[in-house]
Design goal:
Blueprint lengths: L1 H14 L5 H20 L4 H30 L12 H19 L10
Helix pairs in contact: 1-3, 2-3, 3-4
Length: 115
């Protein structure tokens, strides 16, 4: 869900398509539902640790979404490369890559990018 939310925000910037606060709120609600499911499935210390990282990733995604919405309210058009090389965007991507690595190795790894 976080990945899809990020892709939608970045695509909206690149295509100069406005997204609404209502849309972003719906994305957050869906992510919160998925987080509740993940929380219910926690059974090990590694699960708890991974959940903490996932929650931090969700918070970073919320920051990125809020940033986009704030920029959108300040101007009618945005440069398509607005998020290129942005620190928050890179942090979200690095965290997501770390989750892929954990999934592949079946071992918890503390991911600094997620904090």
């Amino acid at each position: 869900m976080i990945r899809e939310w990020r892709i939608a925000v970045v695509s909206a910037v690149q295509s100069n398509v406005p997204l609404s606060v209502e849309w972003a709120s719906a994305q957050r609600r869906q992510a919160d539902k998925n987080m509740a499911l993940a929380s219910a499935a926690i059974s090990t210390d590694d699960d708890r640790n991974a959940y903490t990282l996932l929650a931090a990733e969700l918070n970073n995604m919320q920051k990125l979404s809020d940033l986009y919405l704030a920029m959108r309210t300040q101007s009618m058009a945005m440069s398509p490369d607005k998020f290129d090389n942005a620190a928050l965007e890179e942090q979200i991507l690095d965290c997501a890559r770390g989750f892929v690595s954990m999934t592949e190795s079946h071992e918890f790894q503390d991911l600094p990018a997620c904090h």
